[in-house]
Amino acid sequence: MLRPQDTATRERKSLDGLWRFRADGEGVGRQQRWFAAPLADAIDMPVPASYNDILPGRELHHHVGDVWYQTTVRMPRGWAGQRVVLRFDSATHHATVWVGETEVMSHSGGYTPFEADITEHAAPGAELRITAAVDNRLTWETIPPGIVVDTEHGPKQKYMHDFFNYAGLHRQVWLYATPPTYVGDVTVVPGVDGDPTAEGVTGTVAYEVTVSGATPDAPVRARLLDALGDEAAQGTGTSGVLRVPEVHLWQPGDGYLYDLVVEVLDDDGAVLDSYVQKTGVRTVEVRGTDFLINGWPFYFRGFGMHEDHVTRGKGHDDVSMVHDFALLDWIGANSFRTSHYPYAEEFLDYADAHGVVVIDETAAVGMNSSVAAVLGTRIDKVFSPEAVSEVTQRAHAQAIRELFDRDKNRPSVVIWSLANEPESHTEESLQYFEPLFELARELEKNRPIGFVNVMYSKADVCKISPLADIIMINRYFGWYADTGDLVSAEESLEAELRQWAEYGKPIIMCEYGADTIAGLHDLTGSMWSEEYQAEFLDTYHRVFDRIEAMAGEHVWNFADFQTSLGIVRVDGNKKGVFTRDRRPKAAAHALRRRWRGLT
Ligand code: GCB
Fold this sequence. Notes:
single chain; alpha/beta; 8-stranded parallel β-barrel; 9 helices; 30 strands; binds (2S,3S,4S,5R)-3,4,5-trihydroxy-6-oxo-oxane-2-carboxylic acid
């Protein structure tokens, strides 16, 4: 789904700001048609933001079920004759949306965009009332899965993943206009002619355009402009391959982007619609145990992250985004994983534009009874008709389609991760994942595809790793295993990595880390201290440096983050190298020395 943008033929209007908001604890709003009038008993709620931490008290923090958001917007007079679209960049986890009294769309999946053509409900110059009922419930039918337990005090939400179930309108909401004949979709696949490491190599941009609306057979022109706005190549037709001699490649640390300007023309050659697709030219390849970008071995240094901040939870804001990228740069990281869900599109735009490499992950997390048990939830059999079933699998397939569709054109995205830490040693888990890998491979012909393996499923029993192009694993020797004992941890880790190396594929350690209380120092090197975290990471790094097949290290986590309540978390997960308000722990300085090669 294309992003809204302002071009010579398109305009957009942000609906961010204060919306009217009301929690629907009793779940009566739909039946009582709360969308049909100004929301009664409402409070102000900022958009974008999670609603959970805006008010003091437990009620909204732990709310389960619908909340209602409402705003009014005046449709610009100048949009007469245009196609008008209402787009939510996300709503966590399900939303139904009304314009006035008309339901215009509903969507499940809390981290991907959705939109509806509302032209017929929107008279130019008129005021529209937009209402969204947003439901945060996670069940066995959703991605990620969860369990809603009915108690005499109302419903309680349980889930099997280790981050707080923040909800609401986390990202921007847009009203935008396109001409009646418009660019409906653009796909670009970059490449190079011959050896990408050669001097003055020729880049290729294969493009495919869908024209939608009034005259879908209208002619198309595609122009590729370099960063100075000079034309580098041009083509006509809805698909083609543009060639760029002496291409400026997109590279880690050098996010060089071309603009692919796609124009739909009328019979006289006048432009009906134009859309600008940012395009980076680079190649990605797995060769033996090497992960190659533009033919050069690339070693991932960075983090599993979270969209998580004080007060606004998972709400996007540019201040924190730019600051987080500045910290990644300061510490010498070149990459991150969107653990454990698709991040805001602005975040990926920034990665594209600054040459930061991304492992892009679906929201399929929490499909593991052993992990669930650590976090306090008992599940008998994860992959079964009563739990993660065919219905879940359909939702998972949809999550894969929507993620790939949203991020397919991004040069920063070099690996798709289909899930985090599912059970993967049973026949049932294989049956569940095989069709999902097939689907992913139908959709993606160029990027490597994988999933992130859990500590309970070693190399000799994991049934899903053989399906993956690359080995991605999370390990916690010295924390959940060999607890507090880094000498044993070093041995266990090395032994295990040597087993994984036998796959002959690149290995990325996608998580390793220790909970650390900022400011806690200990001369005996005890767990939870800043000393232990730094020593823990050093231990892992010594091992990584001895294993040829290692292709990357992503520390868990970039920053401390909020989780559900439980006896293994104190005000959230403290494995951050930065605190939740982004102050460095000792490990941040140690990582910086390693990653920036400082002595
Ligand atoms: C994991 C999970 C991650 C948790 C982390 C932890 O394996 O993938 O979501 O937060 O461990 O700290 O336990």
